[in-house]
Amino acid sequence: MNTVTIQCPHCHQGSIALEPRLLLQGAIFTCSLCGSGLSVANETSTQLLEQSLDKLEQIKQHAHAKPLM
Ligand SMILES: [Zn+2]
Questions:
Q1: Which of 6, 21, 24, 67 has its CA 20 to 30 A from that of 56?
Q2: pLDDT per residue over 3-60, tens digit each?
């Protein structure tokens, strides 16, 4: 498995462990702290992810988090 952990863009304190491939497929990963769901929903960010998995810093800028009801 190729799991990557990023800082939660919602609470900036928790961390979100995600798998880039699943993220590309529309999977939602949740913050371990606040429970926000993170997904990448636009083509720009998915292209960035495909081109270079090392550029997660950029992905974080395109990713969005919202509370799961
Ligand atoms: Zn969070």
A1: 67
A2: 888 888 889 899 989 888 888 788 888 999 999 888 876 556 555 555 555 556 666 6
The one-letter amino acid code at 66 reads K
Would you list the domain boundaries of the chain?
4-66
Q: How far is the CA of 43 from the centre of ligand 1 (A)?
A: 23
Distance 18 CA to ligand 1 centre (A): 13
**pTM, two decimal places:** 0.56
Q: How far is the CA of 51 from the centre of ligand 1 (A)?
A: 26
Strand 37-39 vs strand 64-66: parallel, antiparallel, or unpaired?
antiparallel
32 DSSP assignment:
T
Centre of ligand 1 from the C-alpha of residue 64, in Å: 11
